[in-house]
Write a structure and sequence with these properties.
DNA recombination, alpha+beta, DNA damage, OB fold (Dihydrolipoamide Acetyltransferase, E2P), about 35% helix, five-stranded mixed barrel, elongated, about 240 residues
């Protein structure tokens, strides 16, 4: 039996048998990890409440034949209570967790930057100081950059011509100049491009001052760009409540 410890964020839980659960986490050292928490559904469980989605925990596991087994859990950050009580924060948080699980497809592959992005996004949602939609879109922009899918914003995605430009095309890779613009491209406002750049680089003063119209348009472009690269729709995104605080 090999024991190891890691810190991680719980992404998803699944029932197993009568009292156990399979816990899917994104961890600092081992990337995506699926492990069994035995007896966690019993009322007498020592750490049932610590292994719920949005929980940031320190876990000890031992390697099993098919799935590792969790033997000890300590809470690092209790994000869940402050997220699940607010529908807008909850739906945004669900989109963060689902995106993280999709982008960390290979179990055991280190994804330190993605882990830190997830923990940072949940911390911001839990604090409740910013519009959850902005927090989500900032996470999605940076997660796409981590995956190598960052949309071009102020240069043409095809020829590299400096902008600002007046069109955005998802299959082309983002902003496109007039010469490279494919048919059917969107025509976002300049403020939308400014907001997307602010979210990518964490310029929150500029993002917080953005107009509701720019936020709605940026959210649509970010979601379309992500799902085109994932080649499937995220189940949680249509449920996200978009409103300005």
């Amino acid at each position: 039996m090999t024991l190891y410890r890691d810190t991680g964020v719980v992404l998803r839980v699944q029932k197993l048998g009568e009292a156990d659960r399979i816990i899917t986490m994104i961890t600092r050292r081992y990337g995506k990890l699926r492990a069994v928490a035995k007896g966690v559904r019993r009322t007498s469980s020592r750490f049932g409440a610590r292994l719920e989605p949005f929980c940031h925990v320190d876990v000890q596991c031992y390697t099993g034949r098919t799935l590792d087994v969790i033997t000890q859990v300590e809470t690092i950050d209790a994000f869940a209570p402050r997220i699940v009580d607010d529908y807008q924060r909850y739906t945004a948080g669900c989109a963060v967790l689902e995106t993280a699980e999709r982008l960390s497809a290979e179990e055991g592959e280190p994804v330190l930057r993605l882990y830190m992005l997830v923990a940072g996004a949940l911390r911001a949602l839990s604090a409740g100081e910013r519009d959850p939609s902005l927090v989500l879109d900032a996470f999605l922009m940076r997660a796409m950059a981590y995956a190598g899918w960052a949309p071009a914003v102020f240069e043409c995605a095809r020829c590299g011509k400096p902008g600002p430009h007046h069109a955005f095309n998802v299959p082309a890779g983002g902003a496109v100049c007039d010469d490279c613009r494919p048919p059917g491209s969107a025509s976002p406002a300049r403020d939308t491009f400014v907001l997307m750049d602010a979210l990518m680089h964490g310029v929150w003063e500029r993002a917080d001052e953005s107009a509701p119209a720019a936020r709605r348009e940026a959210s649509g472009l970010v979601a379309a760009h992500l799902q085109w690269h994932l080649e499937r729709q995220l189940r949680s995104l249509p449920l996200v409540e978009r409103r300005s605080q």
